[in-house]
Write a structure and sequence with these properties.
The chain is mainly β and 220 residues long. Helix content is 11%, strand content 44%. Strand 2 and strand 3 (57-60) form a beta hairpin.
């Protein structure tokens, strides 16, 4: 296990399995909008063009500020679970046309790999899916992870992707579709793009602190 993962386990550990529990929770992240979204402002963490309206549609993680991603391992099998309350919809002239709040619950549980700087999900599988529920209308949309031309479905990496001068911050990005066969379902862009901040447990924060996380990662 590399130093990056050791630091995450020490600082972002939110729980470990006990007798009868299903999985070890390896890390938890607070999720927020990525500042470099192509349609910013408003910034967003999830973009779903032509799904929430007839044009560019984005959803913010900052409005309710309760989005989380939990990394777990169950008998050697890794999973990434994204939950939270998002806000937004179709946008025109950098503003929402008719904004709603949405509950998101998305689970990557197949083809999740532990890589040098984080986690990747490779190769399409319909089990990597979730729901987006409009909390104003109760309309529910089922979403699936979609592979890009390189077979990458999602990644959560400490590489500062699209953050000028920052090569350390955690960034989540991945592609989405409403088609269960993984094919493109709508024109435009449908993808995650967010930043993640490790959430320290009391024990982890006491042992290392967030400063320890940064220093260990820089020495890896």
């Amino acid at each position: 296990m590399n130093l990056l993962k050791v630091s995450i386990l020490g600082v972002a550990l939110v729980g470990t399995a006990t007798a009868g529990s299903a999985a070890d929770v390896l890390a938890e992240f607070q999720l927020n909008d990525h500042p470099a979204g192509d349609q910013a402002p408003p910034t967003y963490g999830l973009r779903l063009d032509n799904i929430l309206g007839s044009g560019v549609s984005t959803l913010s993680m900052d409005f309710h500020n309760d989005s989380r991603m939990v990394v777990s391992e169950d008998n050697g099998v890794l999973s990434l679970h994204i939950t939270g309350t998002l806000y937004g919809g179709e946008i025109e002239d950098h503003d929402y046309v008719d904004a709603h709040s949405y509950a998101v619950d998305f689970l990557y549980e197949v083809n999740v790999a532990d890589v040098t700087d984080g986690w990747d999900v490779n190769t399409f599988d319909s089990s990597n899916s979730g729901t987006l529920i409009d909390l104003d209308t109760n309309e529910e949309i089922t979403l699936y992870g979609k592979a890009n031309m390189d077979g990458l479905v999602f990644s959560m990496l400490a590489d500062g992707f699209r953050l000028d001068g920052d090569n350390d911050s955690w960034v989540g990005r991945g592609w989405m579709t409403t088609n269960s066969d993984g094919s493109m379902s709508h024109a435009g862009a449908q993808d995650w793009l967010f930043v993640g901040t490790p959430v320290p447990s009391p024990a982890g924060a006491f042992v290392l602190g967030l400063g320890g996380l940064v220093s260990m990662r820089r020495r890896r």
